[in-house]
Write a structure and sequence with these properties.
heterodimer, A: about 500 residues, mainly alpha, two-stranded antiparallel ribbon, about 75% helix, B: about 500 residues, 19 helices, globular
């Protein structure tokens, strides 16, 4: 029940926000909604929080949510990152802020739904639902060229999700599963013949590759980030919505192990290429948001490599990296909004020397940025390290390329910091403001927590990855069953 | 409560008879009174009464658990006829109120309007309840004749006259093809009734399989005209555009649902009668090709339109393709999927036309998409309503259109038509573009000279729109309301 409330509460707040007449209560209401969702998430770690009710018996789907697994961890982190985002957006968005905040809350509701759903159709419904706020924020609050970006995003997203829909609708009738609940599907889907599994997996993988995203299906991401509202709040929502890796980990790979094995080489190759290609572009890019988008694309390449390594450590690490980059990439997009406040531009040429006027801002940014590029002791490192380590065990070539990418990312981080904060300042930048401190506090705390004490989350991810691999192992009928069959 | 046996037969006709009686009443009162509003109320009462009888009979039949037939099997009360009659009557009621809301402005203010609408609906009920091919033809003609007149309603409007004429000529041609198919089928089997055809074809020593196939193909083509499968859809965009908008709404729900009910029953029977041999594979294959073409041409056609009404016309063709998937799947799953799809499409489509009616000029023209620019700011409620409708038509959750697509595609995949389902999904991506264009124009484009001020909604239009929207959301969130209801039907006579 608590898990269901985690979805319904932000949704209710999102529906209520546009009706709130007094502007003064918009931001507190939104912040409160997110905080309450986060609190529910913390309470829902015990198994008592889950819920299962039949939704459409004729279709075999359930309203089943559960917050104890990997999805629960991601849902909590998403809510935690949304907290500073709502705080920041409420202050920075001038045009109909209550509607913008409502869309942010709707994003959170959809994300929590994606992460907690234990029924494939329900998962799909939330997957699609979350697209609407993302599009609405881009279309309603984006920059000049938002029309083209919106249409591009819509086409990519819908092409992906409809491909997934076919797979969703095929997997139950073809496997003869009783229903769409994860455990019902897990009992039947892995027994499908390898070719069918490969086709169904391809449908899922197409959708997840678009949402990861990885090359060559990433073109929408860069434009979307460039055209989003200058505050960067919508970009954070977009970063949290990069749930392709989670979809592979929680649904496609456990249900269709043979399909995953068949397509793993392709996934590894594309993931490794994405990682190195995006990292190289990020280092050379002159537009702050586009550069950040490419850097995050590079992370996604590493996530994909780790997942498709089909190795326990690799998959565990990928999920940890996915969780960490929600915090660090999200944090960097918030930084981009703060920097835009100071210089009115995202072109890197406009920056430089900010550290002189704003040393505290520089220091905090340094923490988030370095966490993002995988400096040990900070958020991304444990996941990235494990992902690469696991990949090296099963696919050394892809691991080598991915390691090169992470080195390139390191160079990107140092270079970006130099171009933003060091060198000559044309004008004195304003030092960090109290609001910005409040926005940074949870981001930095999470960054440190995920970097210093990753064990708790890793255990959850590992448990789930291991369970999936056990289920995927070929089932040999016990000897006595064969004997009794022979006797008959 | 159970009915006395001597009425157990004719009572099935009650919904149809009610409609006809009320059609006669409205016609009669129309001569004596100028109070059109009262006539509208009378007509609506007839539709509601018919709906009540239909639901009552449905419940009764579920309790009893047997298919009821009347007039020696010519008229049937079974899950298909009750479900489709329900959808037809809901659609007819909504379209009727919509027409009443714009009666004066659109020159629909003549006494024939209500009787014709009621007669068309009664023809639809006969069509979906027909137990033999002759009754089917009868129902089709009752419905079509009324709609021909309705489509050509507007005097002094060349477009409307052209629409009526085109619809009449092509419709007559389609009927001729259908009659020929019926004759061939009779020649092959010696029977008109569906149950008899199946029995005759299954009898040992049946040799006229080829003739039966020919007859089946002609019957299929005759009905394909009515449901507007490509390439027999040519009339539809012009007729939808030319007819008065409330009539277009009526056609898009009532006529379409009725034709699909007939198609579901006919193809179900004929596919079974033709058996599983090489000859038996021809009919499903032809149907599959028609459906594939319909999905592709309908969606790409809609993509090219600059008028919203005409876009909705092509999108109606495209949706016919999706319902066609359910027909192809056949059986209980097909009935479930097709009826759900048509029920929700009825609500959504009527809501779309209700919004459109508030946006178009007084002379029922001017549906260019540019007129929607800036609607999101000027009329947030109207724009929000249209956005929900477009999202549902595009197949976004949590709206009913999504579940409709899901059940249809799942039925098709389960019946072994995965390739066609993939094609359907691919074309649905195209559909998202033209539906999204409407939404993006409302919210992302500034109003300019083309933009007309939307007129205030009449009370009737508001009611229709609200019902359509609420149903679109409720059936999207709780599709079990309909799907489980149909699924729990304890009986389904395969031989019809």
């Amino acid at each position: 029940m608590i898990a269901a409330l985690m979805v319904l509460l932000p949704l209710a707040v999102a529906l209520a926000l546009p009706w709130a007449k007094r502007p003064a209560i918009h931001r507190p209401l939104a912040v409160l909604g997110v905080a309450a969702t986060l609190a529910l998430g913390v309470f829902a770690t015990g198994g008592a929080g889950s819920l299962e009710i039949a939704w459409v018996p004729a279709l075999g789907t359930w309203f089943a949510v559960d917050a104890t697994g990997a999805g629960g961890v991601l849902a909590r982190i998403a809510a935690a990152v949304m907290l500073p985002t709502v705080l920041w957006a409420g202050a920075r968005v001038d045009d109909r802020p209550q509607v913008f905040l409502a869309w942010l809350l709707a994003t959170l509701a959809g994300l929590v739904g994606i992460f907690l759903a234990r029924d494939l159709v329900l998962f799909y419904v939330f997957w699609e639902l979350t697209l609407l706020p993302a599009l609405a924020m881009l279309a309603g609050w984006g920059l000049t060229h938002r029309r083209a970006a919106t249409l591009k995003y819509l086409l990519y997203a819908v092409a992906g999700s409809f491909a997934m829909l076919i797979s969703v609708l095929a997997v139950r009738p073809l496997s003869g599963a009783e229903g769409y609940r994860f455990d019902q599907l897990l009992a039947a889907a892995p027994l499908l013949d390898p070719l069918t599994q490969t086709w169904i997996f391809a449908g899922f993988a197409f959708a997840f590759a678009i949402k990861l995203p990885i090359f060559p299906l990433h073109a929408w991401l860069i434009d979307v980030h460039e055209q989003n509202h200058a505050s960067g709040a919508a970009d954070v929502a977009g970063t949290l919505y990069k749930v392709g890796g989670f979809g592979l980990f929680a649904w496609a790979m456990p249900l269709l192990p043979e399909g995953a094995t068949a397509l793993a080489p392709l996934g590894l190759a594309l993931g490794a290429f994405t990682a190195i290609y995006a990292a190289m572009i990020a280092t050379r890019h002159a537009h702050l948001k586009r550069a950040l988008a490419y850097a995050s694309l590079s992370h996604m390449g590493i996530v994909a490599v780790g997942l498709f390594s089909l190795h326990l450590a690799g998959q565990t690490g990928s999920m940890a990296l996915l969780a960490a980059q929600m915090v660090t990439t999200g944090g960097m997009f918030l930084v981009s909004g703060m920097l835009h406040d100071r210089r009115g531009s995202f072109e890197l040429e406009a920056f430089g020397g900010l550290a002189r006027g704003a040393p505290a801002l520089a220091a905090v940014t340094l923490v988030v940025l370095f966490a993002s590029v995988g400096v040990p002791g900070l958020a991304n490192f444990p996941g990235e390290f494990l992902a690469l380590l696991g990949t090296y065990q099963s696919a050394p070539a892809a691991a080598v390329v991915a390691v090169l990418a992470s080195i390139a990312l390191g160079a990107f981080g140092v270079g970006l910091y130099q171009r933003l904060f060091q060198g000559e300042a044309r004008e004195r930048a304003q030092e960090i403001k109290p609001l910005e401190v409040a926005v940074f506090a949870p981001i930095v705390a999470l960054t440190l927590w995920l970097g210093v004490a990753p064990a708790a989350n890793l255990t959850v991810f590992e448990r789930e990855a291991a369970a999936a691999q056990v289920a995927a192992a070929p089932i040999t009928p016990p000897a006595d069953a064969q004997a009794s069959g022979g006797a008959r | 409560m159970s009915l006395p046996p001597e009425f157990g037969d004719l009572v099935v006709l009650l919904p149809v008879v009610t409609l006809i009686v009320f059609a006669a009443l409205t016609l009669l009162f129309g001569v004596f009174t100028r109070e059109r509003a009262a006539l509208g109320g009378l007509a609506l009462t007839g539709v509601i009464a018919s709906l009540v009888f239909n639901v009552f009979l449905w419940l009764e039949a579920r309790a009893g658990g047997v298919a009821v037939t009347a007039l020696g099997g010519a008229f049937r009360g079974d899950p298909l006829s009750y479900a489709f009659s329900f959808v037809i009557l809901v659609g007819a009621g909504l379209a009727l109120v919509l027409a009443d809301g714009h009666r004066k402005r659109l020159e629909l203010d003549q006494p024939e309007l209500h009787p014709l609408l009621l007669l068309a609906a009664s023809g639809g009920l006969v069509l979906v309840s027909a137990g033999d091919l002759v009754t089917l033809l009868l129902g089709l003609e009752i419905m079509s004749l009324a709609v021909y007149v309705l489509a050509a309603w507007r005097e002094r409007s060349r477009v409307s006259e052209e629409a009526g004429m085109k619809y009449f000529l092509l419709g007559a041609f389609a009927s001729a093809v259908l009659v020929y198919g019926i004759a061939l089928t009779f020649g092959a089997t010696g029977r008109f009734d569906f149950a008899g055809i199946a029995v005759a074809a299954a009898a040992p020593g049946f040799e006229s399989l080829g003739l039966l196939l020919l007859g089946a193909l002609f019957v299929l083509i005759g009905l394909a005209f009515k449901v507007a499968f490509v390439p027999f859809h040519q009339w539809l965009p012009d007729v939808y555009t030319g007819a008065p908008t409330p009539v277009t709404a009526f056609m898009s729900v009532v006529v379409k649902t009725a034709a699909f009910g007939a198609l579901l029953r006919t193809t179900g029977t004929l596919v079974e009668a033709l058996g599983v041999g090489p000859i038996g594979e021809v009919l499903p294959a032809v149907l599959a090709v028609l459906i594939g073409l319909t999905m592709v041409v309908g969606n790409f056609g809609a993509l090219l339109q600059s008028g919203v009404k005409r876009m909705l016309a092509y999108s109606a063709v495209a949706h016919a393709g999706y319902v066609g998937l359910a027909v192809l799947a056949g059986g209980h799953a097909g009935l479930q999927a097709a009826s759900y799809y048509l029920l929700t499409y009825t609500f959504t489509s009527v809501a779309a036309f209700a919004v459109l009616l508030s946006l178009m000029d007084d002379d029922d023209r001017g549906d260019r998409i540019e007129r929607l620019a800036g609607l999101g700011r000027r009329r947030p409620w109207l724009a929000g309503a249209l956005a929900v409708v477009m999202l549902s038509l595009a197949g976004f959750p949590p709206f009913a259109g999504f579940i409709g697509k899901a059940v249809v595609f799942q039925a098709a995949i389960a019946a072994g038509h995965a390739a066609l389902a993939v094609l359907g999904i691919a074309t649905a991506v195209v559909a998202v573009v033209f539906y999204a264009r409407v939404v993006m124009t409302m919210y992302m484009r500034e109003p300019d000279a083309h933009t007309a001020a939307a007129r205030p909604m009449s009370r009737r239009t508001t009611v229709v729109l609200s019902i359509g929207l609420v149903a679109t959301v409720v059936f999207g969130l709780f599709p079990g309301l309909w799907l489980d209801w149909i699924a729990r039907a304890p009986w389904w006579s395969a031989g019809f």
